[in-house]
Specification:
Elements lengths: L1 E6 L7 H17 L4 E3 L17 H17 L6 E10 L2 E10 L2 E7 L5 E2 L2 E2 L13 E5 L2 E5 L4 E4 L5 E6 L1 H4 L4 H7 L4 E6 L7 H15 L3 E6 L15 E5 L2 E5 L8 E6 L2 H10 L1 H6 L6 E4 L12 H4 L14 H23 L4 E4 L4 H17 L6 E5 L7 H14 L2 E4 L3 H11 L8 H22 L2 E4 L3 H6 L12 E2 L9 H15 L10 H13 L19 H5 L2 H13 L4 H11 L6 H17 L1 H4 L28 H8 L2
Parallel strand pairs: 1-2, 2-3, 10-17, 11-12, 12-13, 18-19, 18-21, 19-20, 21-22
Antiparallel strand pairs: 1-16, 3-4, 4-5, 6-7, 8-9, 10-11, 13-14, 14-15
């Protein structure tokens, strides 16, 4: 839904001037494809009229002004929310008028009237709490004004509601009740003045309102032109969505401004579907539903890249530094592993170390956990198992890392055992098919499991979330372990965490038993591992010893798959929506054809490989997306992907 907060120039009590400014911004919003635009509190008259609100001339002028604004919307599709004073039975109310296509759709009244500091609204206005449900003829239109929350429904079925300034600051906010009544976006017409430090508090308040109400929130405050007799109005414009800022206007602008943003309604609905607490809180809350008109003109597509930032790596939480994210992940992994070790009274772990990213992270977490528990690092048994496709680079990095970490290291080649196995089952060793590859993965897992039994230890799994989503693991091979430490860590996050470990070891000044500094060796090795192409190394290297089997050449870029995974599981988005978001997030990096190709691959593999996820070992959840079959993702192994794939074909 494309929304806008419009801050016009104002002249106090000059209705004709104010109407002209509002009309101009309404037309600008309509040209920009905005569906709903909100103006500040009492924008038709100006907020700071004080006792002029008692003047009949001003009140009648406001009504005529709103009539002119309605006429101006006759050929516009934009729905406008305008602040206006009006009277019922000789009482004056601070209201918001919703207008579209030349009509007044509804009126909402301010509930909480400030009567402190610089604001004494109770002097002029009555509260919505003083109303009974009543009908009103205003500006030539018959509307209902009352205490029941009002839900305005756009032609696309999006429900939006309204609260006015102080309503947001109250302990029982009408906006929150409005959201519980069904509104997915709440608009706030405000006249909040400027004070040192107040803006930061307001932003946190709007963020909290949007996340507690699981809604979009559009805040629009009075700006330049309001009276500066005692206070200053900076023209605040904020758009939030489920706690995250989508757009922000420029405060203290001397010129009118229009802050346009897109609010993701599917995300809001997805959050509400998942959050049963929100559903329970809705009990007993009714609303008055008011339908808006269908557009008169063809709907214009909005370019997402112009209205909001779509982050290409959504698993990295907004508002946190990379260092903070890495620390959180490491400590969650370590806490999970520590509990498992203490509970089972196990003081030894076995890790297959290949020299790749995933096994490196698993090893580093084991070392970190053992150090925190006060366990001996020598009880970490790292096993490197070179095979037919192992390159010198990954082998050397695995050995160097294990030596530098001070763990117990073993090397067990799988070549002879797998060759014998091929002979036993009658497989041609020169046929590099799936049997050739999976036999190696299963032999490695067998070695790890049997060594763990012999040593009284626990096999620590290395597979990550992205591989589980794609099914990029050998069933009962690297798919299996006794504790999957990386099971909910996406591939795109792992290089950041490994690099963070490199910095940690450098800070600690890691030393060998002879006192020789190792931090430089560890840092160099870890960063070379990060730079190594991702590969299972199950087919032979080229004559120069270089890796020939590159995972991303076969299944696609992990940054795309992680993007697809996040939006499909976190919010339940359909393929078309994910495609649109990916196109905006990766503009200039991937063509539409490439995005569609790998999104199709993702959907096909995600459905086909569910059987591997139905029997995953235990592992700690670190983020908002997990594929654990015990809680986060329960899916039939024989579900059909036809619906999703057919939609992709139509793109």
């Amino acid at each position: 839904m494309t929304v806008a907060a419009a801050v016009p120039s104002v002249k106090v009590a000059d209705v004709d001037y104010n109407v002209a400014e509002i009309e101009r911004l309404m037309k600008d919003a309509d040209k920009a494809g905005v569906e709903v635009v909100v103006f500040p509190e009492l924008s038709v008259t100006g907020y700071s009229c004080q006792d002029l609100f008692f003047q009949q001339s001003l009140l009648e002028g406001a009504e005529r002004g709103l009539t002119e604004l309605m006429k101006a919307t006759a050929d516009l599709d934009v729905i406008a929310i305008v602040g206006v004073p009006f009277t019922i039975d000789a009482a004056i109310f601070n209201g918001a008028a919703v207008i579209q296509h030349g009509a007044l759709l509804g009126m909402v009244v301010k509930t909480y009237l400030p009567n402190y500091g610089e604001f004494y609204e109770k002097r002029w206005f009555s509260s919505a709490a003083d109303l009974n449900d009543t009908a009103l003829t205003y500006a030539g239109h018959y509307v209902t004004v009352g205490t029941q929350p009002q839900c305005f429904l756009t032609a696309d079925g999006v429900a939006f509601g309204i609260e006015i300034c102080e309503d947001l600051w109250s302990p029982v906010s009408p906006g929150r009740i409005s959201a519980l009544a069904g509104n997915e976006v709440v608009f706030n017409l405000s006249a909040d003045n400027e004070l040192i430090g107040k803006y930061g508090y307001l932003r946190s308040l709007v963020a909290q309102q949007s996340v507690m109400s699981l809604c979009g929130y559009v805040y629009c405050g009075c700006g330049f032109g309001e009276s500066s007799q005692d206070v200053v109005f900076g023209g605040k414009a904020l758009v939030y969505e489920c706690g995250e800022q989508v757009a922000e206007g420029s405060r203290f602008s001397f010129a009118p401004q229009l802050t346009v943003a897109c609010i993701d309604i599917d995300r809001i609905r997805g959050e509400r579907r998942r959050n049963t607490t929100f559903t329970q809180a809705k009990r007993g809350i009714a609303s008055l539903r008011i339908a808006c008109d269908e557009p008169l003109h063809p709907v214009r597509d909005t370019d997402l890249s112009e209205t909001r930032i779509i982050h290409p790596h959504p698993f990295m939480p907004a508002g946190m530094t990379v260092e903070e994210v890495c620390n959180e992940v490491i400590n969650i992994q370590a806490a999970g592993l520590a509990k498992r070790l203490v509970h089972t009274n196990c003081r030894k772990v076995v890790v297959g170390v290949s020299g790749g990213l995933d096994s490196t992270l698993a090893l580093l977490v084991c070392v970190y956990t053992f150090d925190r528990l006060g366990y001996d690092r020598r009880d970490i048994l790292g096993i490197t198992m070179p095979g037919f496709g192992t390159s010198d680079r990954t082998y050397d990095n695995a050995v160097t890392l294990m030596q530098a970490m001070g763990i117990t290291m073993r090397e067990i080649s799988i070549a002879a055992a797998v060759t014998q196995h091929f002979s036993d089952i009658g497989h041609d060793i020169d046929d590099h098919d799936v049997t050739y590859e999976n036999a190696q993965a299963r032999e490695r897992t067998q070695i790890l499991m049997d060594v763990a039994n012999r040593e009284g230890g626990m096999v620590i799994g290395t597979g990550d979330l992205s591989e589980l989503a794609l099914g990029w693991a050998t069933y009962n091979g690297d798919h299996m372990s006794m504790y999957g430490i990386n099971a909910s860590v996406p591939k795109t996050m792992i290089p950041h965490i490994v690099n963070h470990f490199a910095d940690l070891f450098e800070t600690k000044g890691e030393k060998a038993g002879n006192g020789k500094a190792l931090s430089g060796t560890i840092r160099h090795t870890l960063r070379d591992i990060i730079d190594t192409p991702i590969s299972p190394e199950l087919v032979p290297a080229d004559p120069q010893g270089n890796i020939t089997q590159k995972t991303e050449d076969l299944v696609g870029p992990y940054e795309l798959h992680d993007f697809f995974l996040y939006y499909m599981l976190r919010y339940g988005y359909r393929p078309q929506k994910i495609f649109i978001l990916a196109r905006a997030a990766f503009r200039g990096r991937y063509t539409d054809e490439v995005i569609k190709k790998w999104l199709t691959t993702f959907v096909r593999r995600f459905f086909a490989q569910q059987f591997k996820r139905s029997c995953l070992p235990d592992g700690p959840k670190v983020g908002s997306v997990s594929l654990s079959p015990r809680g986060d993702w329960r899916m039939p192994t024989d579900a059909s992907a036809t619906l999703w794939l057919d939609e992709l074909k139509s793109l």
